[in-house]
Amino acid sequence: MNRDKTETLIQQMEHARQHLHDLYAEYGFGHACVLEQSMLLDELINQYNRMYQTRKQPHHVLDQIINNDDVMFSPSSPFSLCKTVTSPT
C-alpha cells in the first residue's frame, strides 16, 4: 500500500473513533448505533493491521491515533441505521 492510501485509512480510523465517541456520549454503551460504529472501527483497524503484517512494520502510527483526541477526519460510510450525530460545541 502506498503512503496516500495509508494516510486515507488512518484518517478514516480517526474519524470512526471520534464518531464512536460521539455516539457513546449520546446513546450509551449498548445502543445499536454504538455497536455498529464499533464494528466499523474494528474493520478499519483490521485493514490497517493486515497492511502492516504483510510489511512487518511497527504500529507507531496507530498508537499516535489512539492517543490523539484533537484530530478529526471524515470517511464515507455506505450504510448506517443511525442518524448523524454532531459533536457538542
Q: Care to give the gist of this entry?
A:
It holds the Pfam family SpoOE-like. By secondary structure, this protein is mainly alpha-helical.
Report on the structure:
Pfam families: SpoOE-like. One of its GO terms (biological process) is regulation of sporulation. The chain has helices at residues 3-27, 32-55, 60-67. By secondary structure, it is an all-alpha fold. Helix 1 packs parallel to helix 3 (60-67). Residues 69-78 have low confidence and may be disordered.
- Give the total of beta strands: 0
Q: List segments where confidence is low: pLDDT < 50 over at least 5 consecutive residues.
A: 69-78
Helix content: 55-70%
Question: Which CATH architecture of the domain at 3-62 is right?
Answer: Irregular
Question: What is the CATH domain class of the domain at 3-62?
Answer: Few Secondary Structures
Strand content: under 5%
- The Rg value, from CA coordinates, equals 14 Å
Structural class per helix/strand content? mainly alpha
Shape: elongated
Largest sheet: none
Output mean pLDDT: 77
Number of helices, counting only DSSP H or I runs of 4 residues or more = 3
